[in-house]
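Q: My labmate handed me this sequence with no annotations at all. I'd like to see what the chain might look like in three dimensions before we decide whether it's worth expressing. Could you predict it?
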Amino acid sequence: MLIPCPHCGLRDHAEFAYSGDAGLKRPAPDANDEAWFDYVYQRNNTPGEHVELWHHIYGCRQYIAVTRNMRSHDVRGSRFAATPEAES
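A: Here is what I predict for the chain of 88 residues:
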């Protein structure tokens, strides 16, 4: 799988470390145990397009948000993780 790094260009996925779902929203510090359990352990894993965090460990060392199709593994695009989605 090739991942387009916004800084380094198209790179093999072996240069990156998967860092999880980019859409997770952390609960408030005073949230109940059920909310924290869901945040840490529950994942939907639905087929189709999904935004994930990847760390370019053997390149620019930036975190990027990659939009990927979970069925075909086709990568639609990427942006720096700190960049809001509307600007991608």
